[in-house]
Amino acid sequence: MDRAIQQTDYDAFSCKICAISKMYLPSSKELEFCGMRGFSELHMAYAQQLKGLNRRAYGKVQTAIRQGQPLMNYGTYLRTLIVDIECKSFLENAANENSKIQILNLGCGSDLRMLFFLNQYPQLTWIDLDFAESVSLKAKILKKNEQFRNTLGEPQGADDTEYISDRYLLKSCNLNHTQKVLDILLESSVPEVPTLVITECVLCYMDLSQSQALIDNVVSFYETGTWVSYDPIGGNEADDRFGAIMQANLWESRQLELPTLMFFNSVEKYAQRFEDETKHTQIETVWQYYIQQIPQEEKNRLKSLQFLDEIEELKLILSHYVHSKSSW
Ligand code: SAM
């Protein structure tokens, strides 16, 4: 099962490359507000290195680009944009010249946003954690490219299966082993420093008790922080079959389970995993975000990229994804 979960990283990365190739990403907000100049070039450079190191993963990239489904591209566009904007907002609010800040990306996969934010915020340190296979591949790719190394800082040590520099740590860790996560955090981060924790399509693959242990322990570890999470939800209407169909499809096609999809099946239920007397949680569906936060001009731009007549289907899918933000 862990392997099937780990492989979802290549799906996420393939979808991102596809959204870039079809011009959904980067949005003007990522370019201007988030300072992500060179977004396409960096991702394409990473994809090129992937080609030489993991043919299977690169094959997924090529298939995704060939298929290029607009529904998928809308989803990837919104997911990437939402998390990027949350990172930037956190950094803008928490950063002043002298104060340190930290970002912890749990289940980071091949995500590359650390390159952009480490570049802009000299007082930022970044920790990426994932299963060994993803981490080792990512470390090799990052180490091979001079531009990546320049941003992340020269890697220390000869171990090719992780990346350790003064400001960046990429390390393998099974997130189900909370104590191991805490050991890494204790060694590589500072509990008193304001910290943003990201789980982007990660908690959905974990069991209820293990994901809750992860949340509770990481929140307790840091004095102040914000946790941004993005995940699917199963749906709470009696006649809503979305979650059941999604679970059946994933199991049939790749023996993959989403153990809490039907438990945290609504925005209210999903928010509960972060709620206690110390935390304040804001949550919305991605459809709400699309309707309320994406300006009409940008919606028109998206419409012009590919023909999409399944607007009801888009609404259905995006209504089954949530974006939550909890601060403590
Ligand atoms: N967050 C990345 C993104 O959005 O691009 C990757 C998303 S991918 C769908 C899910 C990631 O979570 C995979 O890289 C997977 O290996 C990681 N993951 C899920 N459960 C994990 C666990 N128990 N330990 C470590 N990594 C885990």
UniProtKB/TrEMBL annotation:
One of its GO terms (biological process) is methylation. The keyword Repeat does not apply. InterPro entries: LCMT1 (IPR016651), Ppm1/Ppm2/Tcmp (IPR007213), SAM-dependent_MTases_sf (IPR029063). It catalyses: [phosphatase 2A protein]-C-terminal L-leucine + S-adenosyl-L-methionine = [phosphatase 2A protein]-C-terminal L-leucine methyl ester + S-adenosyl-L-homocysteine. Keywords: Methyltransferase, S-adenosyl-L-methionine, Transferase. It is an enzyme of class 2 (transferase). It comes from the Eukaryota. GO terms for molecular function: protein C-terminal leucine carboxyl O-methyltransferase activity. S-adenosyl-L-methionine binds at residues 79, 107, 174-175, 200. Its EC number is 2.1.1.233. SUPFAM superfamilies: S-adenosyl-L-methionine-dependent methyltransferases. Methylates the carboxyl group of the C-terminal leucine residue of protein phosphatase 2A catalytic subunits to form alpha-leucine ester residues. Belongs to the methyltransferase superfamily. LCMT family. This is Leucine carboxyl methyltransferase 1. It comes from Lachancea lanzarotensis.
